[in-house]
Amino acid sequence: MRALRLALVILGFLITSASVHADEALLSDARKAEIGEIVKSYLLSHPEVIQDALNELEKRQRDAEANAQKTALASIGPDLIKAENGIVLGNPSGDVTLVEFFDYNCGYCKKSLSDIMTLMKDDPKLRVILRDFPVLGPDSIEASKVALAVRAQLSGSKYMEFHQKLLESRGRVGKDRALQVAQELGADMAKLQKDLDSTEVRRLIEGTMRAADALRIGGTPAFVVGDGVIVGAVGHDPLADAVKSMRTCGKAIC
Fold first, then answer.
1. pLDDT in tens, the chain (254 residues)
2. Sequential DSSP letters for 142-156
3. CATH number for the domain including 135?
4. Which domain holds residue 206?
5. Is the dihedral angle over the CA atoms 149, 154, 160, 164 positive or is it negative?
6. CB 119 within 8 A of CB 243
7. DSSP 27
8. What pTM value is reported for the model?
9. What pLDDT, on the 0 to 100 scale, is given for residue 24?
């Protein structure tokens, strides 16, 4: 960062110098070319400055995104964890809620499944909300419709079995596979077919899409714990740490 600061000082000096010697209007073409050559020469001699600048830009973008997420969570957080807006697993009365945005065709979501199952097994006070976020094509949308429709018939460990079987399926998961698993678990198929395109199913998918957009979540999996958004298949420990922090200080990171 020292090189970056030096470059900024030099550029500031050049601009100030140019302003002093320029006409009241614009710099002459010759003066502009002179400044451009000086800047070019410096950057060629110190290319690390460019990387420093890019790193700083990325950091500022990450900070801006994190602040935007916190602002969004302050307004949509209560709706995000309501039982009627997702699938409740774990302890329905748990003291901490972990929300997962997932897609049944997401390979990283499949990897994260064991992390979520271990968390629920080891933490009897944890409440988990599944939010179907079908962003990987028409098959994902159809699978989500079945999953959201079947929640009226399957709950708790039965729904978890349905969820697990779909995520552990080989190949693409779509409507046919989702209906097959639902039938294996004893769902009323006539009712299920009727409920697939219901207003309620559409409301749930659209609500999750809006929430993900507000939180700047563009892929899966993504997790929300309190005031924190965790993107990607980060593994068991970061999720467990966020839950622990919520109990300690009321924030995802103390």
1. 444 454 554 455 445 554 444 444 456 777 777 777 777 777 778 778 777 777 777 777 777 777 778 888 888 989 999 999 999 999 999 999 999 999 999 999 999 999 999 999 999 999 999 999 999 999 999 999 999 999 999 988 999 999 999 999 999 999 999 999 999 999 999 999 999 989 999 999 999 999 999 999 989 999 999 999 999 999 999 999 999 999 999 999 99
2. HHHHHHHHHTTT--H
3. 3.40.30.10
4. 77-249
5. negative
6. yes
7. P
8. 0.76
9. 41
Q: How many folded domains does the chain comprise?
A: 2
Which residue do the tokens 């507000």 mark? 214
Helix H segments across 23-155? Answer: 29-45, 48-80, 107-122, 138-150
In whole angstroms, what separates CA 30 from the centre of its chain? 50
Q: Is position 25 within any domain? A: yes
Q: In this structure, is residue 62 part of a structural domain?
A: no
Residue corresponding to tokens 């959201």: 148
Cα–Cα distance for residue pair 115/112, rounded to 1 Å: 5
Domain contains 100: yes
Distance CA 239, CA 87 (A): 19
Contact 218, 232 (CB under 8 A): no
Domain identity same for 87 and 213: yes
Q: Please report the sign of the dihedral spanned by the C-alpha atoms of residue 176, residue 178, residue 184, residue 186.
A: negative
